[in-house]
Amino acid sequence: MRITTAVLLALASIPVASAPATANAAPVCRSIDAKVAMTADGPADQRLAGTLCLPRGHATTVQLLIPGGFYGQAYWRMRGDQRRPSYVETMTAAGYATLAIDRLGTGASSYPPSARFRQDTHEIVLRQLIRQLREGRLGGRRFAKVVLVGHSLGSTLARILAARHPAEMDGVILTGESSMPDTAAFEQMGAGIYRAADDPRFAGRGLDDGYLTTRPGLRATWFYHRPDADPEVIAADEAAKTTDVFPPGDSYTPPSINKGIQVPVLIVNGEHDRLLAGARTSAALHAQEAPFYGPRAELETVVIPGAGHVLNGHRTAPRWFAQARAWSDRHVGGAAR
User: Fold this and answer.
1) What is the Cα–Cα distance from 319 to 335, expressed in whole angstroms?
2) CA 246 to chain centre
């Protein structure tokens, strides 16, 4: 099966969890199952799985955490530095609620036939989740503010939503994505993508040929800057891989849509991200991305030294977690105190 550049640009993503927690105040977490439709006028016949974590006190802001291609909600519980808190633990300790999800076709969510996916299926599903969070239909808690936090494909989806439906969210954090994807790198990485049915982990599950996964070793090669990553974390990432579906016509959405974003935006990338071309410093990243955003985005950019594409899987992950926490306090608020 040929994996096109367009598909690859829409997918690269990140990994999973490891080690015991060290957060100052353990959040209260519960599994959620949201009924969702795959099309705007279709039946809500699919189940989307996630984990809603609430801080102590009453948070009025929730962060909707969207993983990239071939990854699920466990990405947001990774500890690249196993002595330090994960992203979820960092944000709940700061007073923010989080909802980490498995997109349809991944993790514990439904696995509909791949032919049912449309180009806007993930967008439609995410809008349903935002509405359910605001209405108190997920976990029984209403949230006044919703921040989208994405990685790679998850960032592309967050950008699309924020540009097309700017009134539906209050802030956007984009990681592992920029206006300059390295198309040659994505083409090379394509050799490491194959049918999930051909992988021993997923064989026998009855998945059709539209379900894909990564060949063994791809993550270590393409997603990590090994000098700053724990081999145990990389191994855990490989062990927890999932499947994914990329509908026909699905592609990287160009940055020309970003002018439609009317809420604050934070962009965070790794210095050694092999899938992104261009900027390798925070100032250079700002100069590269700023022309695509309007003044209401109040754009801020950060490049994390020593990190590859999988930001959460590197020892330097706590640096970007701290940046995201401070940005949330400045631009969104609504943390429990």
Assistant:
1) 20
2) 15
* Long-range contacts of the stretch 139-144 (C-beta < 8 A, 24+): 139/30, 139/32, 139/52, 139/54, 141/52, 141/54, 141/97, 143/59, 143/60, 143/61, 143/62, 143/97, 143/334, 144/60, 144/61, 144/334
Sign of CA dihedral 303, 159, 178, 262: negative
Q: What is the CA radius of gyration of the chain?
A: 18
pLDDT of 18 above 70: no
Burial of 313 (0-12, 13-18, 19+ CB in 10 A): buried
Give bridge partners of residue 47 from the DSSP assignment. 35
Model pLDDT for residues 242-292, shown as the tens digit of each residue: 999 998 766 679 999 999 999 999 999 999 999 999 999 999 999 999 999
pLDDT in tens, 213-248: 999 999 999 999 999 999 999 999 999 999 999 987
Q: In the chain, which ranges are continuous DSSP H helix?
A: 5-9, 87-93, 121-135, 153-164, 183-189, 218-222, 231-239, 282-289, 317-331
Greatest CA separation found in the chain?
A: 52
- With 0.85 as the threshold, say if the pTM is over it: yes
* Residues 52-94: tens digit of each pLDDT: 999 999 999 999 999 999 999 999 999 999 999 999 999 999 9
3-state secondary structure of 309: coil
Buried b (16+ CB within 10 A) or exposed e, 59-79: bbbbbbbbbbbbbbbbbbbbb
Average pLDDT over the chain, rounded to an integer = 92
Q: 218-244 as b/e, with b when 16 or more CB fall inside 10 Å?
A: bbbebbbbeebbbeebbebbbebbbbb
d(CA 161, CA 122): 10
